[in-house]
Design brief:
Low-confidence stretches: none
CATH superfamily of the largest domain: Mur-like, catalytic domain
Strand content: 15-25%
Number of strands: 21
CATH class of the largest domain: Alpha Beta
Number of domains: 3
Mean pLDDT: 95
Radius of gyration: 23 Å
Shape: globular
Distance between the termini: 36 Å
């Protein structure tokens, strides 16, 4: 989206220093800034103002900076607070695409995978559709997503994360979604909102923010999500495995990589597809995407076919192979109790002589001790050996990366290894070693 420095000054109450300039989208990271994108100098763990020289070198036409911090050689819009200004720019960009449907997605797990499924469905049915990059789902990512919507986009898909009450409502005030998907309510970030019921209240901010002519797409198999139907003035479409759902998914078979062939039904019609990612939870995410597609006018057959061709973001239920032939299920992006159970059940469904789960700690859960013990109990019941990476919360002594590598050295084709943990546990280190890549 084309954005001028003067327009940014106008919507933020800022001041342009150095003349006007035009950009195509925004970036907050000079390492990934594409020439032509404006740079937003955010102040967080690192001060973006220290990288204005790098922004010039990378080809930024202008930058948004704090008052008094403009630099020579770069058009700057001086504002009181760059994060607040970014939200204002996001609102301005949203106004420019009035009439284009915006799909918001939240949930304790599955946001990014569901986003990828939704993008696949909507692109198959509508054409040009823009979506959040990676997991851009916060006060920075949502405005940046809106600022990069291309001309002619038929729909926009944004993720909405939650680390406290009011955050999703704030994101909705920027993105103004017309369709809202809620995947599941789990214990992710439950320590910040007073437990799982607090998570449910926080997630309900999405359906509560939808307009009367919008649609909430709710997981009808999750009681807390289904209850959000009472919190919205929008229409409601439910999805899931149960008979009462508007869009229903039923597994027909599971292949040796854990991918489900499913029937997805709506309004008396059924279409069949092999979902393009392993796990029953991915089949549910695919069903959510089909439901959203139907809401936006995509034919059932087109939507169902599209979830078989999805390209998921990295580190989410992706198969790798070790030099010795062991199969590695890389689900290292993040973890909470619900996603851990889903991944373990996927592993258990795969044909193997030995099943091993390398598990890092789950961060920001209300009761870490009981949550980790429950995961360990699930793994034990499924016949999966747990190798706890740098944590003793699973009830057995912690292992180092080297310990794990030694335990799995030479594991052959009959061994399947799940690797998963919260971002802070950096379980991707294990995948790199086992798969023989950096």
């Amino acid at each position: 989206m084309r954005i001028t420095a003067s327009a940014v000054a106008g919507c933020t109450g800022g001041r342009v220093a150095g003349g006007d300039a035009e950009a195509d989208g925004l970036s907050f990271d000079t390492r990934t800034l594409v020439p032509g994108e404006a740079f937003v100098a955010l102040v967080a763990d690192r001060d973006g103002h220290d990288h204005l020289g790098a922004a010039i070198a990378a080809g930024a036409p202008f930058a948004i900076v704090e008052r008094g911090r403009a630099v020579e050689g770069l058009v700057c819009v001086e504002v009181d607070d760059t994060l607040d200004a970014l939200a204002s720019v996001g609102r301005m960009c949203r106004e420019r695409i009035e009439g284009v449907p915006v799909v918001g997605i939240t949930g304790s797990a599955g946001k990014t995978s569901t986003k990828d499924f939704v993008l696949s469905v909507l692109r198959a049915g509508l054409g040009t559709v823009h979506g959040a990059h990676k997991s851009f789902n916060n006060d920075v990512g949502v405005p940046v997503t809106l600022a990069s919507v291309p001309d002619g986009a038929r729909a926009v898909v944004v993720e909405m994360g939650m680390r406290g009450h009011g955050e999703i409502a704030r994101l909705c005030s920027v993105a103004r979604p017309t369709v809202g998907i809620v995947t599941i309510v789990g214990d992710a970030h439950s320590d910040r909102v007073g437990g799982i019921e607090g998570v449910a209240r926080a997630k309900a901010e999405l359906p509560s923010s939808l307009p009367a002519d919008g649609t909430a797409v709710l997981n009808g198999d999750d009681e807390r999500v289904a209850a959000m139907a009472g919190a919205t003035r929008a229409g409601v479409v439910t999805y899931g495995t149960s008979m009462h759902n508007d869009v229903r998914v039923v597994t027909v078979s599971v292949d040796d990589e854990g991918r489900h062939t499913v029937d997805i039904s709506h309004d008396g019609r059924t279409a069949t597809v092999r979902v393009g990612a392993p796990g029953a939870h991915m089949a549910m995410n695919a069903c959510a995407a089909v439901a959203a597609g139907i809401v936006l006018g995509v034919a059932l057959e087109t939507a169902v076919a599209a979830v078989g061709n999805v390209e998921l973001a990295g580190q989410r239920m992706q198969w790798r192979t070790s030099p010795s032939g062991a199969r590695i299920l890389d689900d290292t992006y993040n973890a909470n109790s619900a996603s851990m159970e889903a991944a373990l059940r996927t592993l258990a469904a795969v044909d193997a002589g030995e099943r091993v789960a390398v598990l890092g700690a789950m961060a920001e859960v209300e009761d870490p001790a009981s949550a980790h013990r429950a995961v360990a109990a699930t793994a034990d019941a499924l016949g999966i050996a747990v190798l706890p990476l740098e944590t003793d919360l699973y009830g057995t002594p912690a292992m180092s990366v080297d310990d794990v590598a030694a335990r799995l050295a030479g594991a052959g084709k009959s061994t399947v290894v799940l690797v998963k943990g919260s971002r802070s546990s950096r379980t991707e280190r294990v995948v790199g070693i086992l798969a023989g890549s950096p």
